[in-house]
Protein 1
Amino acid sequence: MHFMSVYKLVQQGKLPAVKLGSRWKIDARQLHAWIAEHGPRAHDGEERLWLLVGSRGEGPSALESLAGSRHTVRTVSYGDLLGALAAAPQVVLLDAGADANLALAAHGLCRRHAPATPVILLVEEPAAPLVAEALAHGVVTLLALPVGEGHVAQLAALLGEG
């Protein structure tokens, strides 16, 4: 976390800390307990939402392997992406096969409105201009179309979603 995020949590009383003079002190045991309660693995029983944006059908069948007690894969149009980001998805998959420019614009939108959410571009061929433009927004993950179940399982494992 960014130090200002930690500072805000401390100021709001959401993270246990004691102010000594002008400095905040956090007890290591309390911090570990807080992380266990609020950290990324704390809510393993909760539903995981993956957004599939602008899909033309190449990804959904492989993504069905995620479906089960913990995962929901929701397909939305590019026009509905901003509203869908409000649901705080764990992963956003953008189908760049139909319109790479639209996918890149959506990638930028995700970086602005959900910067911590992993965004994966689904590409038919990773053309250099597409990759360069995507990298301008930060780290990017590319997944080749058609998406196979093995790729989905590897991706889920990498993201700690497996």
Protein 2
Amino acid sequence: MRFLPVRDDAVLIELDDLESTLALFDSLSSDPIPGTGELIPGARTLLVFYRPSAVTPAAIARAARSRDLGSRVAGEGNLVEIPVRYDGEDLAEVAALLGVTAAEVVAMHTGQDYAVGFTGFAPGFAYLTGGHPALNVPRRTSPRTRIPAGSVALAGTFSGVYPRESPGGWQLIGTTESLMWDLGRERAALMLPGDRVRFVDVSGRTGSTADAATGVTASPATGSTTAAMPRPRTRSRSSTRACSRYCRTSAGPGTPAWACPAPARSTRCRCARPTGWSATPPAPPGWNSPSAASACAHMANRCSPSPAHRCR
């Protein structure tokens, strides 16, 4: 192990590999060093926050070096079930690379629970480890410039779900409607380090899209479950531009919609347009304040040339 100071209340521990990192993370999570706080694992690092008044970096180093990293301790994290339609563009190619059928790839992916090793790349993206050992495929030789949100993918021994539309080079094997990142939830990220993840095949099921859009998080202590919120409706391109016009006007030329001032960013606007209607994600607390309501009305007036709109 190598110990590097980050600031006066955090130290970064470098290890040899991912297995050692996760073993130390599990050990320090199940039996914390007195005075330490949040732990953030990476592929070969573990960031440890601590209270300087309670423990020193030297004491953390001594305690960490004494831990047995030969085997992992069962984590206390939640069990997250993710329903997947195995319709990915690369499913057949992955099967060919492994010398098996597509059905066998699905069986391997759903047959064993994963563990969240670490997070990164984008908010809500979790690197999942511990699946079937045969699921070891290379990244694509030519990455895609646009991968849809909710794409379930493989790369090396990792599995993951793209939380938002983005470039990427992982092999796509399926899609899910579960939201990986949602600021409207108490826990924005659906999967956090220490959680266990189980993929459930819903490819052949019939029923409402809401049934297939539920990601379930179960606490091992209580057995309670919390369903992930369904994916928001797709915005039409023209109505989205119209709805964000107020934001760009008030914030300055060329300002993107996400840089909108807080009152306008905290509203939801539905536009009556031939191309359909749009809605922003669920608003945070305080969205219905007088200033937000005024911004919402102003935005709605710019959204629609007629009174056929509703803003809330």
Protein 3
Amino acid sequence: MANTKKVKWKRHKKVKVPWAEYDKSRRDDCKRVLDLRKKFKKLDKPVQRREFKLSCMVVLVLFKVLLNQSYRTIWSLSGTFQLWAVLGFKRNPCYKTIQNTMAYLDAEILELINRSLIPRHARLCGVDSSGIRTTRKGAWVIVTFKRRMRKKDFKKVHIFVDLEKKKILACIITGGTIYDGRQLRRMLRMCMWIRIEIVLGDGGYDSRNCFNDIAGINARPGIKVRKNSTTKSKHCPSRKWAVIAQKENYDKWKEDLEYTMRCVVEAIFSAMKRRYGEIVHSIKRKYRKVEIWIRTIIWNVCIYPR
């Protein structure tokens, strides 16, 4: 017979949330998002109607990603808190106007804006990827897009991070089955204007191409190799010395390259999924890239401001 007595659950650790500090930090985030209008001034042009400027409309899109809400909710908040008056509009733009602002943005434009938010020298960098789900599920996908419903529709987000300053230097969104090592060269090319000393990565980047790409930018590769790796060069001397160093004294190799700092990338992925959610809301491929870059800009400005 089951025990019918109710057992009172006791908390082993007292948790007290400083709500005043939390509210103040969120207000500061909103102020920094409003300041981003200056970054989009060079791209200013009318959106939908002449009364709406691109630099101000992008702010509403940033709030949509920052608060992880729908376009209709942002339209309602803009009217409730008179945000449209702060941005200099004569009236509150409708939710469809805010949504159509995504068509005026491009991943290359957002990449250039992100460059002005990060330093030009990074001593210790890390690279990693994480899966993210999409919203293309349900029977409405078959009716609207005339496509077969998929059981699993997910993507991969690859980021290149300054581990000391917690800034995201580059980001790429790919298919869920793409090999991680092939995206390292793309991210290194996106960061050619930054001077990098050490690049850390997990075993997924253990390949001669990855080692040669890191050595090509005059940086030290900090990638964990397989246990049965050969010490022969095979046209990749940087990997040869990494194999020798890890086989002789693995703990010393980790200490010299500060390999334990690679956990910062995992922490950033965890924090971004808690704040923005584990779903990419955009349906089109172009808008998904824009959404990922918007998340990156908000992270560099609000989470770890310079």
